[in-house]
Amino acid sequence: MTLFAKIIRREIPADIVYEDDEVLAFRDINPQAPVHVLFIPKQPFATMNELTDADAPIVGRLVIAATKWAKAQGFAEDGYRVVMNCNRDGGQTVYHIHLHLLAGRAMHWPPG
Ligand code: 5GP
Question: Atom of ligand 1 at shortest distance to CA of 93?
Answer without folding.
Answer: 3
